[in-house]
Structure prediction request, 304 residues.
Amino acid sequence: MTASAPGKVNIQLSVGAVRPDGFHPLASVFHAVDLLEEVTVTSGEPGSGIRIDQVTGLQAEEVPRDGTNLVWRAALRLAQELGRPGPDVSISIHKGVPVAGGMAGGSADCAAALVALNELWEAGLERDDLARVALDLGSDVPFSLMGGTALGLGRGERLSPLMVRGTFHWVFATATRGLSTPAVYAAFDRLVAGRVVPEPTADAAVGSALIAGDPVALGRVLHNDLQAPALVLRPRLADVLDAGISAGALGALVSGSGPTVAFLVPDPVVSAGVAAALAGHEDVRACYAATGPAPGARVVARSR
Ligand code: C5P
Prediction:
């Protein structure tokens, strides 16, 4: 059973003061893009346990194949939810989302694994039940299940779909080294220390630009509160942001906790121009063109 799930960019990411549980309240506009993870699950012999057989695709060599992989945790957590002993399952992952880049590639793996295992085990869990299990695995996993474009409140799990007209074109520039999400949130805490941080709220201008399908308006209101702390940790990302804007992007921001930089572009011609301008940049590993919104986690192939 094979399921896919999309990577994401946060069009708006407003962050509040850290909560007693260590998480930060968010107002996040998630936007799924067509860089996809694919997870294939196959029943193993009784007693064989969980195995990650194969990881292929983008930066596959950087992905752990043991119990630290989120997909492994997803299989354990879903089996526990269903009261299944074992589980005996072998898993293959094909990666299309950059690793440790702020694009929720690991969360997409989790979401795809949950959907694939729900089918393989004929468990019949509804989307709401899967979303509850998903949140135990990470703040972005419920959105990876849902896909499209959505406002996320709380840790990002209180999701409401947003209306979007048309398709938006993006270029993603990955960095030579990943950034740790907790480290970026900790840098955020240091930046706002001693200040009153407002409760994060949805930006009406973002919603209007999405409904209008207006990339020029959207480019003006892209906003990420984790960008400043990511730049403290990686100052040279500022130069990457500027280079993409100079090459014709309508807007640019650090994606999630970074270090991937997202450029909103008017069309595929400008996509190619931005990618070409960044090709030789010493802080850029690679550029990927993508479009959004993309659908959430879903079964894409089954075989007997
Ligand atoms: O939920 P997830 O595993 O993706 O979170 C990773 C880390 O990012 C958390 O342990 C926390 O440090 C930080 N985080 C946060 N507030 C959020 C989401 C994540 O502080 N809303």
Notes: Residues 105-120 form the longest helix (16 residues). The two ends are 9 Å apart (CA to CA). The first strand starts at residue 2 and ends at 15.
